[in-house]
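Ticket #4471: structure export looks truncated?
Reporter: QA, pipeline team
Priority: medium

Steps to reproduce: submit the single chain below to the structure queue and open the exported record.
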Amino acid sequence: MIARSPLLTCLGSHAAGSWQRWEASRSIHERVLTARLNDLGPTHLDTLETMNNLAMALSDLERYNEAEKLMKQVLEQRRAKLGKEHPWTLWAICNLAKVYTGLKLLKQAEDLLVPGIAAAVRSLGRDHLGVLMGTGELARVYARQGKTEIATNMMEDLVSRLEAHRGPEHPDTVYALHQLAQLYERQQKYDKAADKSELAKERSTARLTIEHPLARKIATQCRKLETLKPAANSSNPELVGTTVSHEPKESPKGEPCRNGTQLKSLKTYKTFYLSVKPDLTV
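Actual output as written to the record:
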């Protein structure tokens, strides 16, 4: 039965992953993988896609060694079947780099991402989602290496490109704003951090409910930054009493989740937001 309807099963597993129901997501992906291994074999592209998704679910559960083993298989097979610069091969490179980041193998992650992004730009163009996703992951690696300024510059550029090509209220853009706010906070630029975090919170209401894990994470960040700003501003009299302005919202405040739009953004791990576990800091 699973093999006959893998699409609905996969949609359920991705939705579970987006809501941080990591164990449910892993269980569903494992069932789909078993069915596809039996019906299609270990090297079929659909099997490799499910293997990739299971690896990301295992990574969410911090079972990085298992995830690494699966992603290496996916990358090897996609290179053999599709070529070194095929979009799916490049996506496997990025996902393996994410696993390396989880394992704290930051140099290995960087060594995969730098040439991988260059190849993706050649094959797909600078603003393809795969390039944007890889850029976000590389910025995360640099941040963890202590290269905060480089990471911040990359994230600022990434937010601009996501706004232009995914839309200002897309969850990918919202998540990138959240990450950028984290980088500003790390540098004790609390006003900038609060500005980006509030903007992420405003935009998140277009496609996410307030109960969604990402929306809750951003709301917590906003509250934290509000407590940090007064202490920072008190040492600089010129900043006391200033307020932060935000662009007007295009969507009505409190608009309920539009299920069709939300499902479209949640149905695959091939989005920037779903490419990184939401409760991991940069």
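Status: closed, not a bug. The export was complete when the record was re-opened. Leaving a note from the reviewer for reference: Confidence is low (pLDDT under 50) at residues 1-17, 237-280.
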